[in-house]
Amino acid sequence: MKKRIRGEVTSDKMDKTIVVSTERWVRHPRYGKYLRRHSSFMAHDAHEEAREGDTVEIEETRPLSKKKRWRLVRIVERSEQAKADRRERESTA
Fold first, then answer.
1. CATH number for position 10
2. In the chain, how many domains are there?
3. What is the pTM of this model?
4. Is the pLDDT of residue 17 over 90?
């Protein structure tokens, strides 16, 4: 079973690649306070569907490049900016 992670797209500026940021809460071993920790993953977006701010689900895969080991599975939720951009493109076409 391959790992699946849900996160937010922080960058879509590269060709067929997105950067997905995830957040997790970790308990401090000594003091017990919960700390927020972030991880960033580069994921393959073959059809360039995801936009910055979208919530996406990515899945582990074979190495695709030096830093890419994940691929886009689906877009869970579109950001408001991405929705507005899509409407604008459809109205001009």
1. 2.40.50.140
2. 1
3. 0.83
4. yes
